[in-house]
């Protein structure tokens, strides 16, 4: 009779040991991995967007602006960044600006070159409308030639739909 309670305790201990071998992680669905290039770009953009115009002028590093699908209209969050770029260009008249338009993989090569050029041209138009001489700005359309990521998810395609800015002190005739 004393053996029965001992066996019950032993079985209970064995069940607890078997159950503890299973981890919580086995029950959870694993999140989809994000491309590190996308995460790096997001962190970089947040850091650069938080800069003041004076800091942008000093570091010569500007954030990218990301577009919605099939859109050439600058997104609303682009205007504060563009205004800082205008301030940088007004404060230092030796600076020139290169605007590079990019597209995602959706659409033909011709369409992607057109839309990336139109995005860059929209940025130039806004900056010129704020008093910057158009001769100080050059635009380039790259279409889908220079992606940030090869991720074809909606997040990856959005990362590739962007306009990049580069400040330079070189005269145009020396680089073109």
Question: Which helices and strands, and how do they pair?
Answer:
Elements: H1 3-20, H2 24-27, H3 36-49, H4 53-59, E1 65-66, H5 78-91, E2 96-101, H6 109-129, E3 137-141, H7 154-160, E4 162-168, H8 172-175
Can you describe what's shown?
- There is one protein chain.
- This protein is an alpha+beta fold and 176 residues long.
- It has a domain at 60-170: 60s Ribosomal Protein L30, Chain: A (2-Layer Sandwich), CATH 3.30.1330.
- Helices cover 51% and strands 11% of the residues.
- It contains eight helices and four strands.
- It has helices at 3-20, 24-27, 36-49, 53-59, 78-91, 109-129, 154-160, 172-175, and strands at residues 65-66, 96-101, 137-141, 162-168.
- The chain has a four-stranded mixed beta sheet.
- Helix 4 (53-59) packs across helix 5 (78-91).
- The chain is globular.
Care to count the β-strands? Answer: 4
Task: Note the main sheet.
Answer: 4 strands, mixed
The CATH class assignment of the domain at 60-170 is Alpha Beta
Rg from alpha-carbon coordinates: 27 Å
Q: Give the overall silhouette.
A: globular
The helix content, as a percent range, equals 40-55%
Seen as an oligomer or otherwise, the chain set is single chain
Main traits of this protein?
176 residues; single chain; 60s Ribosomal Protein L30, Chain: A; alpha+beta; 4-stranded mixed beta sheet; 4 strands; 11% strand; globular
